[in-house]
Design a protein that fits this description.
Elements: E1 14-18, H1 23-39, E2 42-49, H2 59-87, E3 90-97, H3 100-110, E4 115-119, H4 126-129, H5 132-139, E5 144-147
Parallel strand pairs: 1-2, 1-4, 2-3, 4-5
């Protein structure tokens, strides 16, 4: 029995990328967009807002911080939509709230992601305590690409 290569059936169909506005996450987004374009994959972009980041702030300061966080997400959404239209990538944007690891795993399962792409953590303590990327790799559900 011989196997024939079927054009257009190999490679990932759905790629999920987590972005949070940091330079490494934006690099991950650019990498994921290029990969999605070349592979003709659907790109799912997720921004996870962490409500715990606003705990302990004065009520007025927390409201301002939440508004700034939402504005960042809306700017990222606009970039994803415009970039998808310009390049022909089928891209969707999700703004969710909660723990980044939990929400990325949940959404990757929900969309049946074939791969997850994230930026490397720039926090020094994550080299010892573990980062989001390391936790995703240890989950072992999909290939994880970590972009520096």
């Amino acid at each position: 029995m011989t196997h024939e290569f079927e054009l257009g059936t190999d490679g990932p169909k759905v790629l999920l990328v987590g972005i949070d506005g940091t330079i490494t996450s934006l690099r991950a987004g650019a990498y994921a967009a290029g990969l999605a374009r070349r592979q003709r994959s659907r790109l799912v972009v997720v921004y996870v807002a962490r409500p715990s980041a606003f705990v302990g702030l004065a009520p007025g300061a927390a409201a301002v911080a939440r508004q700034a966080d939402h504005e960042l997400a809306e700017d990222l959404r606009r970039q994803v939509v415009e970039g998808g239209e310009w390049t022909g990538i089928k891209a969707t944007f999700h703004e969710v709230y909660g723990d980044p690891y939990t929400e990325i795993v949940r959404l990757a399962d929900e969309v049946n992601a074939d791969g997850v792409i994230v930026g490397a953590s720039m926090r020094a303590g994550h080299r010892f305590a573990g980062s989001l990327a390391i936790r995703l790799v240890k989950t072992g559900k999909w290939p994880v690409t970590v972009v520096p």
